[in-house]
Amino acid sequence: RLRKWQRRIRVSNATERNLAFALSELDRMASALGLPRTVRETAAVVYRKAVDKNLIRGRSIEGVAAAALYAACRQCSVPRTLDEIEEVSRVSRKEIGRTYRFISRELALKLMPTSPIDYVPRFCSGLNLKGEVQSKSVEILRQASEKELTSGRGPTGVAAAAIYIASILCGERRTQREVADVAGVTEVTIRNRYKELAEELDIEIIL
Amino acid sequence: MSESSIKIENVVASTKLAEEFDLTVIESEFEGAEYNKQKFPGLVYRVSDPKAAFLVFTSGKVVCTGTKNVADVHTVVGNLAKKLNSIGIKTIEDPQITVQNIVASADLHTILNLNAIAIGLGLENIEYEPEQFPGLVYRIDEPKVVVLIFSSGKLVVAGGKSPEDCERSVEVVRQQLDSMGLL
DNA sequence: GCTTTAAAAAGTAATCT
DNA sequence: AGATTACTTTTGAAAGC
């Protein structure tokens, strides 16, 4: 009857309004992070699936949007850290992480942990390091993975250490501070990781 | 062949020592007792006999944490009751003590490839986010516990109701990893 | 969901010398 | 560059917001 239709329209309006808000949030965050359209679209797909499965119940739209974007970056192999997502979102990193785990499980995203290799292109360009250094960094990371030097370690820290070593080996040295800043880790972490990599992979680093 | 040599690191238990407590009185009589109602409804009291910490509530219920044995829980709860009696507070005779949670550590003595384990156990059954925490989280249904698996081969079992639960869960993990050739 | 307790694992981080 | 301290994760109960 009429009442039923009014209610349906009202719900529909609210649903559409919320979806529009979520999509604008995704756009805003993606723009702030300079993410390509494909990632925004992937994030929108993830968000819509979350809506279809009623996963937004008891959660904030901003939180689910941030988590969807975080997941989309990983699905597209252009990962952003939770800290980076937090900077452009209105929710805490704790909530983003918690929401990510939830939608990741409910939507069966089955994402492997982020690979340090996926951070190499972005970090290297941020350091103005070209292809040769990138290739060397990836080579080091492949060896590191084979020798079990990456399990349990932060992907950004391992990637940063590999880039630090590669930059020196390629004669385009970047300081630990410079690498640490683009990777968002501390110099201490780079030091710990590069010492381990250099030792275990028998890489001689002459400064 | 299954000497898991589990080490119990912490035991959490709950009990009821009275129908009600006047936490303000206990706070003034027990040295070191902390009680801030607006901060937390329970009074915090630490003992060092066997080391332990209590959370005492106005309802008469008590939570005991920090002991390394199930037996120590009974010891320290008994001591707490005696201490309460000594300042004129009566307590229930044979309080029913329930172990709510046991945290234990173990060692598989092998370096582990957590990515391989994540795939082997199934991405839908585990949580592994090295960006946030170095351990892989594996939830087991029987016994119902959570096992944190580290690349060093060290394990942390949380949520067990008995030491046996912890030992069994370590065996479950060891057997599963072994059957997949990941040990 | 948060607050408080204790405890281990290993990585990362902040601060001080 | 160390050394220290501290926070990340997991578990569980308690009473109340």
What's the gist of this structure?
The complex is a heterodimer of chains A (207) and B (183). Chain A is an all-alpha fold and 207 residues long.
CATH class of the largest domain in chain B: Alpha Beta
Give me the CATH architecture of the largest domain in chain B, please.
Answer: 2-Layer Sandwich
Number of strands of chain B: 9
Q: What value does the average pLDDT of chain B take?
A: 97
**Shape field of chain A:** elongated
Low-confidence stretches of chain B: none
Indicate the proportion of strand residues of chain A: under 5%
**CATH-level-4 superfamily name of the largest domain in chain B:** TATA-Binding Protein
Beta-strand share of residues of chain B:
25-35%
Query: Order of helices and strands of chain A, N to C?
Result: HHHHHHHHHH
What is the CATH topology of the largest domain in chain B? TATA-Binding Protein
Helix content of chain A: 55-70%
Poorly predicted runs of chain A are none
Shape of chain B: elongated
Oligomer: heterodimer
Please outline the major beta sheet of chain B.
Answer: 9 strands, antiparallel
Mean pLDDT of chain A, rounded to whole units?
Answer: 96
Task: Please give a handful of descriptors for the protein shown.
heterodimer, A: 207 residues, mainly alpha, 10 helices, B: 183 residues, alpha+beta, TATA-Binding Protein, 2 domains, 9-stranded antiparallel sheet, 4 helices, 27% helix, DNA-binding, TBP_CS (chain B), transcription regulation (chain B), DNA binding (chain B)
